[in-house]
Structure formats: structure tokens, C-alpha cells
Specification:
The protein is α/β, with parallel strands linked by helices. The chain is built from 20 helices and 16 strands. The chain has three domains: 6-30, no CATH class; 36-148 and 189-349, Response regulator (Rossmann fold, 3-Layer(aba) Sandwich); 373-525, Glucose Oxidase, domain 1, CATH 3.50.30.80. 34% of the residues lie in helices and 14% in strands.
Length: 575
């Protein structure tokens, strides 16, 4: 037992060590004769309130089997399950809470390592943040994407096609019976979104960061291969403890630069930008909007997956998944970066040849070049806003037009389809008050619907500016995460109807064409919104959350020094 962290609980013949062993034996885990058998925690986020994570129920058992096969002692425990479908105002509000739960559970219990089961989008970054802070040997197991629904003789991509069908329904192109049929078709299977939404994006980035078994992040939900991968992850978790290979040794600056590259190469979710900033912050690594921009230069978009492309995640996996993509851009990556199974270079040497120009395109035939995202700054977003250029309209990248301002989500939903709304295709739709502090929790409200009367007239895209997020399955010329947000006194709070907004994506510019004197006058009469939350998690969130460029993490959770320090101490005393 010498050298294992859990020995601090179980070694010895006093009454406290005995009590610890009895507690484990009562749960069916015999630690009395352990030798070098590490205790591996299995964090299970399966929940019937979250169909995206339900495939994890079977995978947790496979992980347990793998831990036993490798000589470890598996200890399964439940965690919060963050499901974007049902949690309001947003699962994002609880990402930091789950990360704290992971960190504190690992720290306070006799665990030597962990396997973290996650799938729905906010669950994945949460477990990575918790693992980074706890810094015990850990590996992530993903649950995979759901099977595609069929409607009108074609496959539906989760989210992306729903937004398009909603436009058809609200403008009369899809009747009520058709809308009912859409609902029936979409209720077809378990698993995460099968487009390049946040869940698939974060799964891919988890593998890219080195925290998941190679090739495992895009295995479809229900595929027997997922059980094999989960079992392998359980075995590897035991080896990680024996090697004492820590998340802080895997998720390095090099790994984050690789992740930024891959985010561009897959046309991933804009949410991932916030999540990567948050995870890096837990490790005292400077990696944010500037690194997003720098790693986009020269990076081709190769994943031909909705919403930037045409295929689904199942197609992406069928032609080789993440290893095949990484091999295609290997010269842009730091192959010395570590993973849970060795270096990235080691992984790439085993990647087989694949079909040409399928769901993963070749370098000679990209969907676009020089990345999938841009960052803009200016008088409307001094600390930056982001745009997913690969899913936007290039003809709108240089644009100026009058603002149509919505002060919150309910204002927007109540007026967006009003036939008397004063709006034209040249207008810039502004949604303020929906940032991390403002709601709180920065919901995915940023893809402001095109006003119904303009949709009916054939308008398919407009410039939109917001301090909110949008789903990774969404699309359009939307400037997101404007910082500082309106509720923190950012310029977005001062915009008025008719103000001219100037956008130049190539120049990295987002300006409000209003004089400094006028903005100062408006600021003197502006009052911060009064919070409705006086207690509990939302109140703590509003007091402590950082802005989007810092990852919307809590200020007291970010690593305080440039040199990351392990924060999981040995047990002090017995209780």
C-alpha cells in the first residue's frame, strides 16, 4: 500500500483506519488486502433528466470491469448531470458547480485516480476543470452521439436542422402536422447531438488534449465499441496511478495550442472557446482569445460536419475520427504533447490510411482556410467578441447598420415576430443583458431569430451582436460573448435603437459609431440591473463569475500562480 494516496485512509491498525476499511467493505469493496491495488473513482453522470448522458449507465459498468482487470478497486459515485435540453436558464450556470463537486469528491475521499464519465456538453468541460484542479490521475470516458432522426426522407442533424425547420414552421412553410411529425422523429434515441455541437466538440477536444483514449471520443452511442473503449479506459486509469501521470502533465500549453488548432479544423462550437479558457485557467496557463486567433492562421477546416458542413458525427467517426483528423494536420501540431497513452506522435504513427474527401476532407480540399473563428474588438466589445466564420455569411463580414435593441431574452421573444417591428435586412440585431452575470449563466440565446417578416421575404441571415452564447449546432453571422457584458457595465448596455454598428471581421473590428461624449452621458444615467437572486448558487455565481475571455469560471477557482501546484494534499489527521 506504500505510495498510494488511499493508504492514508486504510493503512494501520488503529480504530480510525479500521473504520475506513469497514466503510468500504460495507459498500462491497474489500480494501483489507490491497497490496498495490489503487482505488479508482468512477464519476457517473448518467441521469434520466439528461438523455444525452444515459448511455453512460452501461459504460460505467464496463469501466468497473476494466479497473478490476488491471488490479484496481473501482468505486462508483454519482455526480450532477448537466443536460442542456431541460436545465434552465442554462446548464452552463452549473458547470462550475459540477467542477467543484468533482474536485472536492476526489480530494476528500480515498481515491488514487478517477475515470470521469461525461457526454452532454457542459458536463465534459466541468469534469476537465475539476480534474485539472484536483490533479489526480484521471481519464475521461464519453458517451457518444445519438442516432440521426429521419424526416422527409433525409437525416436530421440535431439542433442545426431543427432551427431551419422552426423557421419553416413559424413562416407557414411547414404546417402543424409536419411540426408534430418533427417532434416524433426527434424522439428517437439516446446520446449527445450528432452535429458539431458543443458536446461533440468538447469530446473531440478532450481527446486532443490527451485526456481520453485515442479514437474513443466520437464512437456513436450504443456502438459495442464504446464498451471496449470504456473497459480500456478503466484499465488505463490503474496504469496512470502507477505511473503518477497527472492532468497537469498532460494538459500543457502545447496541448492547448493543439486544441485551438483542432477547434478550427473541426469548425467546432463557440462554447468551446469559453471552456478551453476556463480549463487553462485552472492550470495557470495563459491560453485565450489571442491563442485562438494565432492558431487559426493557416489551419484548414476539414471536418465536413453540420453546421459548417454537411455530414454528421457518425460519418466523421466512420472515416477515422480524431486520429485521422490529427494525422491530416500533424505538421501544425506539437506531437510531443502527452496523452493518457503516450505522446501524440506515438498515436499518429498507428493511424491507418483513410478514404479521401469524405466527412474529413484532405488538406488539398478544405471547406475553408485560415480557421473557423475570428475575434473582434472595438468600442462595442473592448475585451472581445467571437464569431464562427465557418458558419456565417461572408458577404456580411463588412457591414454597418442601425441597431435594433432587445434588452433581454423575453423582450426579444415578445417582439421579434411583431409585424410592426422597425427592422430591415441591413439592421443589426442586438441582444443585451444575457451574459454570465446578467441572467445569470449566459444562456444559448445568441442566435437571435431572423424576424418572421424578413424570413418570409427571403432573408436568411443578419448581423447579430450579443453578450450571450449560442448552441454549437447554431449558425449565422452572430457576434457572441461581447465583453464586458451589459450587466457588468459593458458598452452593450448603452446601445440604443438606431445607433450605427460597424463590423469588419477581417480587420477584427466591432465599433459603436457613437461619440465618446454621448456614451459617457448615457453611462451617467445607466444603473446596473438589480439581481433577483439574494441567496444560493445563482447569487454566488453572480458575485464570483469572470467574463467570457477568462472562461466564466469563478475568480477563486482559477490557479493563483503561473506555476501550477497540486492542490490535493495528503490526509491531515484522521476523523
Amino acid at each position: 500500500m506504500e505510495g498510494l494516496r488511499s493508504a492514508e485512509w486504510f493503512a494501520g491498525d488503529d480504530e480510525v483506519a479500521l473504520l475506513h476499511r469497514v466503510a468500504m467493505r460495507s459498500a462491497g469493496l474489500d480494501v483489507s488486502v490491497r497490496a498495490d491495488r489503487p482505488v479508482i473513482g468512477i464519476a457517473d453522470s448518467a441521469s434520466e433528466l439528461n438523455p444525452c448522458n444515459l448511455p453512460l449507465r452501461a459504460l460505467a459498468e464496463a469501466v468497473r470491469e476494466g479497473v478490476l482487470e488491471a488490479g484496481g478497486i473501482p468505486a462508483r459515485f454519482p455526480t450532477m448531470s448537466l443536460g442542456e435540453d431541460l436545465m434552465k436558464p442554462s446548464a452552463f450556470l452549473y458547470r462550475n458547480l459540477l467542477s467543484m463537486e468533482i474536485e472536492e469528491t476526489l480530494r476528500s475521499n480515498p481515491l488514487d485516480g478517477a475515470v470521469l464519465l461525461a457526454n452532454c456538453d457542459k458536463t465534459v468541460p466541468a469534469v476537465l476543470m475539476g480534474a485539472a484542479s484536483a490533479d489526480l490521475p484521471a481519464i475521461v470516458v464519453l458517451g457518444g452521439a445519438r442516432s440521426p432522426a429521419m424526416f422527409g426522407g433525409r437525416r436530421l442533424g440535431t439542433g442545426t436542422d431543427l432551427w431551419r425547420l422552426w423557421d419553416d414552421h413559424r413562416t407557414g412553410r411547414l404546417d402543424d402536422q409536419g411540426w408534430v411529425e418533427v417532434e416524433r422523429c426527434l424522439s428517437c434515441s439516446l446520446g449527445a447531438c450528432n452535429t458539431m455541437g458543443t458536446a461533440s466538440t468538447m469530446a473531440i477536444l478532450t481527446e486532443t488534449l490527451g485526456m481520453a483514449m485515442p479514437g474513443s471520443s466520437t464512437i456513436p452511442a450504443g456502438d459495442p465499441a464504446s464498451l471496449d473503449a470504456a473497459r480500456a479506459a478503466g484499465r488505463r486509469a490503474v496504469e496512470l496511478v502507477r505511473l503518477q501521470l497527472l492532468p497537469s502533465q498532460i494538459m500543457t500549453s502545447a496541448a492547448f495550442n493543439n486544441a485551438w488548432r483542432v477547434l478550427h479544423a473541426i469548425g467546432g462550437s463557440t462554447n468551446a472557446i469559453i471552456h478551453l479558457c476556463a480549463i487553462a485557467g485552472r492550470l495557470a496557463i495563459r491560453s485565450g482569445l489571442d491563442e485562438l486567433v494565432a492558431n487559426g492562421r493557416g489551419t484548414p477546416l476539414l471536418a465536413d460536419v453540420e453546421p459548417s458542413g454537411k455530414a454528421l458525427i457518425q460519418d466523421f467517426h466512420a472515416v477515422g475520427g480524431v486520429p485521422a483528423l490529427l494525422r491530416e494536420i500533424a505538421d501544425l501540431l506539437d506531437t510531443r504533447a502527452l496523452s493518457v497513452v503516450g505522446t501524440l506522435g506515438d498515436i499518429l504513427t498507428a493511424v491507418p490510411e483513410r478514404a479521401v474527401d469524405s466527412a474529413i476532407r484532405t488538406r488539398a480540399n478544405p471547406l475553408c482556410t485560415d480557421g473557423s473563428f475570428a475575434v473582434v474588438r472595438g468600442t462595442l466589445a473592448p475585451d472581445g467578441a467571437v464569431i464562427k466564420t465557418s458558419a456565417a455569411s461572408p458577404e456580411l463580414f463588412r457591414h454597418q447598420g442601425p441597431a435594433v435593441v432587445f434588452r433581454d431574452y423575453h423582450d426579444m421573444r415578445s417582439r421579434i415576430d411583431d409585424p410592426n417591428l422597425e427592422v430591415t435586412p441591413e439592421s443589426v440585431l442586438v441582444l443585451a443583458g444575457c451574459g454570465p452575470i446578467g441572467v445569470p449563466g449566459m444562456p444559448e440565446w445568441g442566435m437571435i431569430p431572423i424576424p418572421a417578416k424578413l424570413v418570409a421575404a427571403g432573408v436568411t441571415d443578419m448581423v447579430r451582436v450579443t453578450d450571450a452564447r449560442m448552441s454549437g449546432t447554431s449558425f449565422g453571422t452572430v457576434l457572441l460573448h461581447a465583453a464586458p457584458e451589459a450587466a457588468a457595465g459593458g458598452p452593450l448596455a448603452l446601445v440604443q435603437d438606431g445607433d450605427i454598428i460597424v463590423l469588419d471581421v477581417e480587420a477584427g473590428l466591432l465599433d459603436l459609431d457613437v461619440s465618446a461624449d454621448e456614451l459617457e452621458r448615457r453611462r451617467t444615467v445607466w444603473t446596473p440591473p438589480q439581481s433577483l437572486h439574494l441567496r444560493g448558487w445563482p447569487a454566488l455565481y453572480q458575485r464570483s463569475v469572470t467574463q467570457a475571455p477568462e472562461g466564466c469560471d469563478f475568480d477563486f477557482l482559477r490557479a493563483p500562480t503561473e506555476q501550477h501546484r497540486r492542490v490535493v494534499p495528503p490526509v491531515v489527521g484522521r476523523s
